[in-house]
Amino acid sequence: MTTTEVEVEQEVKPKRTMSAEHKLALAAGRDQTRAVNNYLAALGSTKKRRGRQVTVESLQTRLDKAVTELAGDPSPVEKLLLTEQVKKLKHDIEAKRATTAVDLPKLEAEFIRVAKSFADHRGITRATFIENGVEKRVLEAAGI
Questions:
Q1: Second label for 37, Cα 20 to 30 Å away, from 12, 26, 67, 90?
Q2: Helix (H) or strand (E) holding 20
Q3: Model confidence over 102-120: pLDDT tens digits?
Q4: Tens digit of pLDDT for each residue in 133-143?
């Protein structure tokens, strides 16, 4: 078989293109998913825990104390433990600041705007949203 015969045998398929309507539908789905994901992530990060809440100020006080002790003359084991404590406290402070920087009302409004369509399209029930921390009042506002 020559090259031209092989080329003739292979069927030339027309190039597929998506319609503008299909592209818009895909973009809308991505936007809905992003809005729902951002809201659920914010709920998880701002969820109130039981007991006394740790503040950034109290973490900073503990960090300052650990740094002061580290600057002194600690034993090698104390130095090791203090270094780890400083690292953890810095991480906790950054995590607290990131949590407080979330604009929950804005994310909630965006969630309310897209949740009904998202839930209908994906087959997600009201109970599933509630199990994942979404309040009933938010679901009612979204029409779910």
A1: 90
A2: helix 20-46
A3: 677 888 899 998 899 998 8
A4: 888 999 999 89
